[in-house]
Amino acid sequence: MFQNLAMNALSGLRFDNTFQRSLPADPERSDRRRQVLGACFSNVSPTPVKAPRLLGYSKEAAALIDLSPAEVESPHFVEVFSGNRVLAQMQPYAACYGGHQFGNWAGQLGDGRAITLGEVYNAAGQRWELQLKGAGPTPYSRTADGRAVVRSSVREFLCSEAMFHLGVPTTRALCLIGTGETVIRDMFYDGRPRPEPGAVVCRMAPSFLRFGNYEILASRRDEATLRKLTDYTLSALFPELGAPAGQQHGPEHYVALFAEVCRRTALMIAHWMRVGFVHGVMNTDNMSILGLTIDYGPYGWLDDFSPGWTPNTTDRNGRRYRFAHQPGIALWNLVRFAEALLPLVGSAKPLEEALSQYERTLRERLLELQLAKLGFSPAERARATDREQGSSADTGEAPPLGVELGDGLIDELLQLLTSVETDMTIFYRALGGVPVDSGWLGGSDPQLTAFLQEALYTPAACPPELQARWARWVRRYVQAQLDHGPAAEERRSRMLAANPKYVLRNYLAQLAIDEVEQGETAKLDQLLDVLRRPYDEQPQHEELAAKRPDWARDRPGCSMLSCSS
Ligand code: AMP
Ligand code: MG
Fold first, then answer.
1. Which end of the chain has the lower number of beta carbons within 10 A, N or C?
2. Bridge partners, residue 101, by sequence
3. From the CA of 95, how far away is ligand 1's center (Å)?
C-alpha cells in the first residue's frame, strides 16, 4: 500500500521534455562511440546496476520536485534513480558538447557518463532537469566506462548541497545511490588501477547546458544547429531577456544572452572567491550557461589562504586552475563562448562590449562581498569615500580612508593572510568577534592579534615584525569600523551572515568517503545536516569547524585529487 502510494507519486512527476522536443537528435540509438554531427543529443538508456542502495538524499532538493521523504525512501525511488527503471514519461539522453581542456581545444566530449532522464515541472511551474551521473556508457564515453566511483560521487553530492546552503549558485544533488558494483580506477594515473565501489548521483538543474554545447557546433561550422540551440536557450532558459519565444532571433538577442551569461558567471566566481572554493577543472565543458557551479571533480576548499593553491594533481605543473586564477580563467572561457556565438552575431564588437559586463560585475560584486566579510555595506563605503574626498578637497591631501575602506584595507589583509599559514574560514569568523572599541585600540600588539591565534596553523611562525603588521591592520580596521561601520549588533549579524563557520573541508569529505566505502553513512548524514546551516553556530559540531588536522595535509583525497573519478 505504502509502496503503491510512492509509485503513484513518482509517476506523478510531471515531465515535459522540451530540450529533446525542440532540438535535433542523433538518429542512431546505441552507445557505440562516435562523432555525433548535426545533433544536440543522443537518445540513450541508463545501464542497470546490480544492487542499488540509497546512501543519502537531500530533502531540500527532493522538495524542489515535490517529493516527500517517504517517497524518496521507497524501493521504487531507488530503482528509478539508480537507472534500473525508466519511467514512461522520461526520455533519457546524453548531450553532445566539446570543450577547451587546460587551454586546448579537445574536440567532441559530451555526456560520457551523465544521462539526463528528462525535465520535471514542479507544482510551482519551475523546471528541473534530472540527470544521473555514473549511469553507464553513451556515444560520448570515448575509452571510459560511463561509471563513477563512490569517492567522487560523495564529493559531488555533498558539495552541491553545501554550496547551495552557502548561497553559491550551483547545480543541486537529489541523491546518492551505491551500485553494488565495482569500477576499476587508476586514482593518480600512476599505473596502479584498483577496483573501487561504484555510485550514481542524481543531480538537478534548470539546464546542464555548458559553453561546450555551443563550441562544438561552431567548431564544426554547423550554424543551423547552433542557431537552433541558441534560440532554444533564449526562449526556454532566459525568458527575461524578452526574445520572442519559438522564433529565430536577431544578433541583439544573442548579444544580450552573452552579456547575461557574463554577468551570471561573474556572480558565481565572486562567490567562489568569497568562500574559498577552488573548482579545479574550469574547462569550457565545465562552465554552465546558467552561471551555476557544475561538475564537481577535483575541487577543494582553501584551508590556509593560499591564492596559488589547486587541489588538482592533474594540473600540478601549470596550476592553471589555482584559486587566484579563477576570475581570469572564467574570462578566458567566456571569450571562447563569445567565439562560438560569433557566427550568429556576425561581428565581434558587440560581443567584446558585452564582455565588459563580466569585468564590471565581478569587480563590483567581489568588492561588495569582501566588504561584507569585514562587516561593511556598499553604502557605508560610498559615504566614507565621499567624506574623504570632500575633506581631501578642503585640505588638498590624498583621500586615504575611502580608498582604504574599499581596497587598501582589503589588499593589505589579503597579503597578510598569505604571509603566514592562516585558516581562511576561521580567520573571518574570529574577526567578527574583535571588539570595535576605541579603548581596545590602545592595546599591545599581542593583545590586538590574540584573536588571530586560533586561525594560524603554526602560531609560533608569526614573527614580531609580522605581528606588528597584523596589529597595524587591526587598528586600521577597527578605526574604519568606528568611523564608518554600523552599530555593534548589526556588524556582528552581518559578519555572521557573510562568513560561514562550516565549509566542506577537504578532509571532512574524505572522512565521509572512508565510511561510505565501508557501507556506513553516519558521517555523510552528519555533514549533510551540519552544512545545511553553514552560518550558524552549532556547538555540538564544533569539531567540524576545526582547522585541517596534520594527518590530512598531504593525504590523497584531502589535499591531492586528480581527474580520475
Ligand atoms: P570531466 O573532466 O569530468 O569534466 O570530464 C570530461 C569528459 O570526460 C566528459 O565528456 C565526461 O563525460 C567524460 N568522462 C569522464 N569520466 C568518464 C567516465 N568514467 N566514463 C565516460 N566518460 C567520462
Ligand atoms: Mg565535465
1. N
2. 104
3. 12
Report the length, in residues, of the chain: 565
C-alpha cell read off for 368:
561588495
In short, whether 95's Cβ falls inside 6 Å of ligand 1 is no
Nearest atom in ligand 1 to 145's CA: 20
Nearest-angstrom CA–CA distance, 185 and 558: 18
Q: What is the distance in A from the centroid of ligand 1 to the CA of 111? A: 7
Over residues 388-440, the pLDDT tens digits come to 666 555 554 443 444 456 568 999 999 999 999 999 999 999 999 999 999 99
Closest ligand 1 atom to residue 286 Cα is 4
For residue 128, report the distance from its CA to the centre of ligand 1, in Å.
22
Residues 6+ apart with CB under 8 A from 536: 501
The pair phi, psi for residue 17, each rounded to 5°, is -85, 75
Question: What is the per-residue pLDDT across 543-553, written as a single tens digit (0 to 9) for each?
Answer: 999 999 999 98
111 lines ligand 1 (CB under 6 A): yes
Whole-angstrom distance, CA of residue 532 vs CA of residue 536: 9
- Dist. CA 564–CA 230, nearest whole Å: 32
Bridge partners (DSSP) listed for residue 423? 304
**Sequence-separated (6 or more) residues with CB below 8 Å from residue 357:** 259, 262, 263, 266
The residues, any chain, with a CB within 8 Å of residue 534's CB and separated by 6 or more, are 162, 165, 166, 500, 501, 502, 503
pTM of the model: 0.95
Q: Is 412 helix (H, G, I), strand (E, B) or coil?
A: helix
Residue type at 280 in one-letter notation: G
